[in-house]
Amino acid sequence: MKNKVIEVLNSIYDPEIPVNIWELGFIYKLEVNANNDVYILMTLTAPNCPVAESLPMEVQTRVQMIPGVNNVVVDVTFDPPWTMECMTEAAKMELGLI
Q: How many distinct structural domains can be found in the chain?
């Protein structure tokens, strides 16, 4: 089930950055328990990000649509703050940073 959740996260993009939220490193924690309840701790580029309300809601809605998933909880944190170091090498290459 965790792999299915990651697939969905790979299909969700911050509208201002052409890289998915998984590769951007926005997902700090992903847990799936035996009942297929999903817990996601995520961040955004900044607290005043234009999608601060809509992006976590999109994550919750899209993950909830996975067949077999029961409850989905998405929490947002800014501790530690997101930095470009959170991105995968693939994301950095996509954005021309390396």
A: 1
Amino acid at 22: W
CATH of the domain at 8: 3.30.300.130
- CA angle, 82 as apex, 48 and 87 as ends, to 5°? 130
Instruction: List the beta bridge partners of residue 31.
Output: 39
**pLDDT (tens digit, 9 = 90+) per residue, 57-90?**
999 999 999 999 999 999 999 999 999 999 999 9
Could you report the per-residue pLDDT of 24-55, keeping only the tens digit for each? Answer: 999 999 999 999 999 999 999 988 888 888 99
67 class by beta-carbon count within 10 Å (0-12 exposed, 13-18 middle, 19+ buried): exposed
Phi-psi region of 85 (alpha: psi -120 to 50; beta: other; left: phi over 0): alpha
Tokens of 19: 């890289």
Range of the domain at 55: 2-79
Give the predicted TM-score (pTM) of the model: 0.94
